[in-house]
Amino acid sequence: VLAAAKKAGVHLKMCLCTHKHLDHSGGNEELAQRHPEIQVVGSGYERTPGVQKMVRDGDVFSLGSLRIRVLHAPCHTGGHVLYFVTSSKHPEGKAPILFT
């Protein structure tokens, strides 16, 4: 992820982690140690490696013009969360992104 971001000229600010399985969270701790400017966000319903900010259903936070709403979806794991992302540049419901 870091190499791809560097190649694209993108500066990462936040990592949204959906659940605790290592294929989704395995690099969180190293990311947090090497890049303290990148905030690692994850479920408050389960212990996920490297998470610095725990979130729960209904929580809303921002990243620049992005509005991120947390949805608890206990299916893949009991603590699985989804992130519904909208932009202040688009009205609610227009051009949303759902991270599952």
UniProtKB/TrEMBL annotation:
EC numbers on record: 3.1.2.6
Enzyme class: hydrolase
Superkingdom assignment: Eukaryota
Record's keyword annotation contains Hydrolase: yes
Presence of the UniProt keyword Hydrolase in the record: yes
Keywords: Hydrolase
Residue ranges constituting the Metallo-beta-lactamase domain according to the UniProt record: 16-84
Molecular-function GO term, any one: hydroxyacylglutathione hydrolase activity
InterPro entries recorded: Metallo-B-lactamas, RibonucZ/Hydroxyglut_hydro
Protein name: Hydroxyacylglutathione hydrolase
Source species: Toxoplasma gondii MAS
